[in-house]
Amino acid sequence: MTTRIQRRNRRKILDAALEVFSAQGFRGATLDQIAGVAGLSKPNLLYYFDSKEAMHRALLDELLDIWLAPLRAMNPEGDGRAEIMAYMRRKLQMSREYPRESRLFANEVLQGAPRLGDEISGDLKTLVDETAALIRRWIKAGQIARIDPYHLIFSIWALTQHYADFDAQIRMIRDGADPMDGAEPYLEELFDRLLKP
Q1: Which ranges of the chain does DSSP label H, i.e. alpha helix?
Q2: For position 65, what pLDDT does the model report?
Q3: What gap in Å lies between CA 8 and CA 44, rounded to an integer?
C-alpha cells in the first residue's frame, strides 16, 4: 500500500515530467531536468519510475482518459448541432485548462506516436468511428449540414488545440494578449455556420 508521501512524490514527479516533456519533447527531456523541476534527486526519481519512458507512459495514459472524455460525453439522443457545439466548447476549455497535456500529446503524434500508436489506432479510432456514425445519423435526420464527419472532428481538434499547442506564437503575434481572448465566440460562429442545415 502506498503512503501519502509516496503518492505526493509520485504526483510531484509526474507534474515535473509533464512540464519538461511538454517543453522539450520526449527526446529533449532528461531525467536530470525532471529531477531538478521536481526538486528531488535522480535516484529518488528512479525509486518511483524506473525510466524516463515509464514517466512518459504514465503521463500519456492519464492524458488519454482526459482527452477522450469530451468525445464520450456526446449524447446520441441530443440535438446534433447542440452536441457538436458543446463538444467544441469542451475541447477549447481543455486547451485552456490542460495546455501542457495538449503539447505532450502533440509532441508524441509529431514523432509518429511511437508510444501511443496502439491506443490511437485502437480505442481512439473506435471512438472516432462511432462518433462519425453518430454525426452521419444527425446529417440524415437533417439536424446538421452535409459535411464529412471525420474532417469535422479533425477541424475541432485543430482549431481548439491550436490555442494550447501554439500559445507562444499567438502571444507574440497578439502582443502578449491571452491567446484565448475572443476564441470561443469566433469558433462558435464558425462552427454554427458550418453546421447549419
Answers
A1: 4-28, 31-38, 42-48, 52-72, 80-97, 99-110, 117-119, 125-140, 149-165, 167-173, 183-195
A2: 84
A3: 13
pTM of the model: 0.89
Contact 21, 56 (CB under 8 A): yes
Do residues 34 and 20 make contact, with C-beta atoms less than 8 angstroms apart?
Answer: yes
Residues in the chain where the model's pLDDT stays below 50: none
Distance (Å, whole) CA 22 – CA 29: 9
Domains along the sequence of the chain with CATH = 1-50 (1.10.10.60), 53-195 (1.10.357.10)
pLDDT value, residue 66 = 87
Counting Cα atoms < 13 Å in the Cβ hemisphere of 7 gives 4
Under DSSP, the state recorded for 76 is: T
By C-alpha distance, which of 12, 41, 148, 160 is closest to 98?
160
